[in-house]
Amino acid sequence: KQVLERSSFDYNSDRLICLGDVSDGWPETKEAIDELLSIKNMDYIMGNHDVWALQWMETREAEEGWLDQGGRATCDSYKDGVPPNHVRFFKEAKDYILERDRLFVHAGILPGLKADECSQAILFWDRTMVRQAMDLQKKEIPRQLTPYSEVFVGHTPISSPHPMKFCEVWMVDTGAAWSGVLSIMNVDTKEWFASDVVKDLYPGVK
Questions:
Q1: Of the candidates 118, 112, 101, 172, which has an alpha carbon nearest to the alpha carbon of residue 144?
Q2: Could you give the 3-state DSSP secondary structure of residue 72?
Q3: What is the percentage of the chain residues whose pLDDT exceeds 90?
Q4: Nearest partner of 134 among 112, 175, 109, 166, judged by Cα
Q5: Which of 30, 110, 135, 166 qualifies as a cystine partner to 77, CB 3.0-4.6 A?
Q6: What is the pLDDT of residues 50-83, one digit of tens each?
Q7: pLDDT by residue (tens digit) across 123-135?
Q8: Which of 143, 182, 201 is nearest to 9 (CA)?
């Protein structure tokens, strides 16, 4: 709510592309999805934690590994049951979005491949592209890694209060699941807004 308010986001006329993993971060997964569903023009991209959450919603079976990575908080947020539109929210999520030569994806793609040539495992989980982009930028030899003019990703947190660009890759995960902030960026102007440090919004919660 903070980043939407601070960016003066209009729920009826503005468009939000969400890069995934609304699940498993903090105690309010259900409330967060309700908020996203109230946005008229909202495109949701599936994240790896969302895959786990959907599996639990459909089967009520939860692996201990997922529960220990935030899944328990997601389950607890649905103490009154899972609304059908929340299951539909994840089932209708996109693997990626490609518009005007710009790619939006949760984790990344393999360098040299297009998004439609990559499996869901790559799109939801793989960090090869972002690691290469960060390494090249660090060595001050930036080069084009993908067929796209810009790529916007979540999944891999950075220790920065704002999105950062490495080669053509914009990394937008600013560590909200840990000790960082949640950020939102206008992809045309590159103006960004950040929440308070998220752990301070949930005192006493690990």
A1: 112
A2: helix
A3: 93
A4: 166
A5: 30
A6: 999 999 999 999 989 999 999 999 999 999 999 9
A7: 999 999 999 999 9
A8: 182
* Contact between 204 and 198 (Cβ < 8 Å): no
Report the C-alpha gap between 46 and 90 in whole angstroms: 7
The answer to whether residues 45 and 95 touch, using CB atoms and an 8 Å cutoff, is yes
Q: State the residue for tokens 């539909």.
A: 88
The tokens of 68 are what? 């220990």
Q: Which two tokens stand for residue 114?
A: 């297009």
Distances in Å between the Cα of 25 and the Cα atoms of 30, 53, 70, 73, 199 are: 11, 11, 6, 8, 10
Query: DSSP characters for 75-102?
Result: HHHTTT---HHHHHHHHT-BSEEEETTE
Q: Tokens representing 196?
A: 């308070």
**Where are the alpha helices (H) located in the chain, listed in sequence order?**
2-6, 29-37, 48-59, 64-66, 72-77, 84-91, 120-125, 128-138, 198-201
Q: Residue ranges of the alpha helices (H) in 1-71?
A: 2-6, 29-37, 48-59, 64-66
Distance in angstroms (rounded) separating the CA atoms of residues 181 and 173: 9
